[in-house]
Amino acid sequence: MAKFTRRNLIQTGLAAGAVLAAKGCANSTDQSESTEATTETTTEDGPKSPEFNANHSKDVTLRFIGTGVSQINEIREKAEEDLGFKLEMRALSTDDNNQIAITQPGQYDIFDGEYFSLPLVIPSGNLRPLDVKRIRQFDKLVPIFTTGNLYDGAPVNESQGTAPRKVMFLTGEDSTEFADEPTDWATLIPFQYNADTLGWRPDLVDKEINSWAQLFDSDFQGKTAILDIPSIGIMDAAMAIEASGLMTFSDKGNMTREELDQVTEILIEQKRNGQFRAFWKTFDESVNLMASSEVILQSMWSPAVTAVRARGLPCQYGPLKEGYRGWGGGIGLSRNLSDIELDAAYEYLNWMLDGWLGAFLGRQGYYSAAPENSKKFMEDYEWAYWYEGAEAAEEILDPFGEKIAEKGSKRDGGSFEERMGNVICWNSVMDEQTYLVQKWNEFVAA
Amino acid sequence: MTKPKRSLTFYILAAIFGLFVLFLYGPMTAVVLLSLQGPEGSLTFPMRGFSFYWLVSVFGEQRIGEFVTPFLRSFALGLLVMALSVAFSVMAGLAFRRHFTGSRFIFYLTITSLIVPSILVSLGIGIAFNILGLNVQWYSSALGGHLTWTLPFAFLIMLGVFNRFNPTYEEAARDLGASDTQSFWQIVLPLIAPSLIGVAMLSFTLSYDEFNRTALISGENNTLPLEIFGMTTNVTSPALYAVGTVTTIVSFVVIAIALTAYNFFMRRQP
Amino acid sequence: MKTWKQLQTYLLVTPQTLVFLLFLLFPLLTIFVVSFWEFNGYAMSPALILGNYKAIFTPVYLATYLNTFKFTVIVWGLALAIAYPVAYFLAFHIHDLRWQIGLFVLCTIPFFTSNIIRMISWIPFLGREGILNQVLLNLGIVQAPVDIFLYSDFAVVLAMLHLYTLFMVVPIFNSLVRIDRDLIAAALDSGASGLQVFKEVVLPLSLPGIAIGSIFIVTLVMGEFTTVRLMSGGQASSVGSAIRNQIGSLQYPQASANAVILLLVTLAIVVGIMRTFDIRKEL
């Protein structure tokens, strides 16, 4: 058995699954066990039939859509190597990604998207409810995605907005209705998430940054930026507005029309005062803005911070007294998938949680959805730096080999529990989504 | 004839012209220079190092996506658009030598295609495909979108060409018993060949660089300009400028080939 | 024989006409129909409502239209101011045909390269740490980097001029070279001054060229969204970018209503220009 690589195993596993399916005796609730079982029998049967079928699974190509955050060639190559079939990745803006997911179901097999988009994507019926029994590592998922209870008393348990726990499960196999409790049918299988906050250039900002309100600080007039993605930008704006004491919300994650009117009014006023330098739609744009000193304080995403640092520029990503804005990303499968391709897609989901991917993304500051597994693929000092908030025992490198933190430095915001635990709101789709988008466009247009 | 004395106006206008050319080419120079930085280069000046690293990297894999396939796709689409534009516009040009019912409608339809804001073409084709349940693809919807942009130019040029075309050669051929088809292939086509080179080159480059009409309808596979636009939001290295430099070189090569071909055909004119 | 000729004519014109019917007229009609449809937050459904149009006649959207007009007028005026002298220089001051063609080609080459690349090439030039600011700082003209060079209306207008001025140069040049030189000589012989010749002979004869150039500039700028987005850092807006944003959030009916209004406005301007100047003879 020693000469059996993981790749061979999966190919044969897939092939066996397909054979079973063809024979009409595949039991979907039992798929993973039965494929494993057959893998062994088929390999004992002799090389002939697995070889034929392995060739078959080699022809599978899964087409991904997602954002530049994770549509990265290194990930594709590693997955292809381990799994033995082909992936095609397509990096889009968040808006375009959701748009294609909803309107062009023929263009993708796998949707790599954010949880907040689900109230829009799920009603389209383009995604297939996922059988959690086929996800081998499902019980390793952090509770943020399942029960919603990270640890007792954590602010994140009561967080506002489209929290993953609210849109993680569907009521049934053919349902497009979200379930309040965990069920066997998931919308997305999560793999990455983070607590977002303000980032700044400490060499150009000469005061302490400790509150979202400072996004509107007149000292930074013309040097701040805001994201032009309505569901995310509105939450940053709400954090800044609430922290400035300009208004209060009953629920930031589900504003009323009056609240949206008021928010837009405040934002337009800030814009007219020249508070913002630019609006951006993808995280790389925010990197360019920050690295060229056009912007010195803005809401950022973790890989943007590491990318700025990888260029040798200082960039801080600090904890703020109000808490963090959270987001979560996962993988959904198109309803068009069937047979061998569907099996391959499930294999990808299982591969995704195995740990390599979590470790790769973890080196950019994201958290893995199955942290225990990712720990195995990280050096101890890396794990201590990224997850425990400990001092870096060695230089910290990003996944592309660039140095992003000195020996002895600590992660901004501390440990996983301190950071994720203090997420108080999530990127959101609201009941008044159409109105929100309309008001947001008014703000951009003003 | 004595050389006209150069007036003050000449020098003022020459200066304006010089500034205009500088304005056209200046920023491009910045892009070319920045694409020649060393591996440690960034998106802004000052230049960090000097190498062909980024130019070479254009042909390899990027952190996100790659360029060779979209380039080949745009090239193929450009050739397809070019062939169709030349064929359709020559045919329409031949038809327009006579007056016929509906010619005004077709003429204004063509002009409309030229002046409808590009985003509407893109939006319209996108929605129409969506409602009909068709998938948008670069070889279907985007091809159509490109033709709405290249055909009006090609058609207007062909109208001008046939306006100036001297029909006596054709009549002579017909008197000698040539069929319509024969006189077209043996007389008309060689005579209009230099203009066709112009139409072909214009159609190809308009398609190769087209962005606005393709933006919403290229489907799952991007054309090169769309890939480059995606890059402006997904790339944070001089690879972006390197692609600019390389595509500009491609455009120049196409222009050079077209001009050479044009000269070649002009020399063979009677 | 005659019917065969007629049939032949129609056959010849069929492919081009089909392209425009399928990819222009039909899509435009679809836009018109969809502009009356409903939108429920994630999908559209057939209906006959005017809400999408009503939403346009709100102060913010009207301001967007005004902003688009502002860009159009500024770019048009500046393009004309730049293009006329350039075309005039080429047409009247360069007498050697080879030089004339050579310089003309020099102006048109950038037109054949990627618009996106030409646009972003301004960014390292205009930024806070860009060449222009470095030069100004070194010369002591400014004490701190000037912010309004990039991510501003200034940057948008500059980039549009860079992209579109040529569309004004070519038609003006085209009409200037067609002016009969004997006409000018005759006017000069009869004692007219250079300025009078320009005002009475050259300018009126070049008006059709200006008109064609203006139509190009108006239609290009009215539908702009890429330049506006990239060069204003996402801060400025135009009708085109509003449509793009609405599409991004799936609001096709709203985007369609905007598109219909944009088309009507653009066509009205174009028809206005065509009524004022007889451009037919330039074609």
Summary, kept brief:
Chain B is an all-alpha fold. Chain B is 71% helix and 0% strand. In chain B, α1 crosses α10 (239-267), α3 packs across α6 and α6 (141-164) packs across α8 (180-209).
Detailed description of the structure:
The complex is a heterotrimer of chains A (446), B (270) and C (283). Chain A is of the alpha/beta class. Chain A is 40% helix and 16% strand. Chain A has a domain at 1-58. Chain A has 17 helices and 17 strands. In chain A, α9 (257-272) runs parallel beside α17 and α10 runs parallel beside α11. Residues 1-53 of chain A have low confidence and may be disordered. Chain B has helices at 8-35, 53-57, 68-95, 103-115, 118-132, 141-164, 168-175, 180-209, 224-234, 239-267. By secondary structure, chain B is mainly alpha-helical. Helix content of chain B is 71%, strand content 0%. By secondary structure, chain C is mostly helical. Chain C has one domain (55-282): MetI-like fold. In chain C, 73% of the residues lie in helices and 1% in strands. The longest helix of chain C is centred in the first third of the chain and has 35 residues, at 59-93. Chain C is globular and about 70 Å long. The mean pLDDT of chain C is 89. Chains in contact: A-B, A-C, B-C. At the B-C interface, α1, α3, α4, α5 and α6 of B face α1, α3, α4, α5 and α6 of C.
Highest CATH level, the class of chain C: Mainly Alpha
- Distance N terminus to C terminus of chain C? 31 Å
- Gross morphology of chain A is globular
CATH architecture group name of chain C: Orthogonal Bundle
| Ends apart, CA distance between termini of chain A | 66 Å
Number of helices of chain A: 17
Total beta-strand segments of chain C:
2
Q: Strand content of the residues of chain C, in percent? A: under 5%
Tell me roughly what share of residues is in helical segments of chain A: 25-40%
Tell me the fraction of residues in β-strands of chain A, as a range: 15-25%
- Please provide the ordered H/E string of secondary-structure elements of chain C: HEEHHHHHHHHHHHH
Structural class of chain A: alpha/beta
Cα gyration radius of chain A (Å): 23 Å
Number of helices of chain C: 13
| Oligomer kind | heterotrimer
Structural class of chain C: mainly alpha
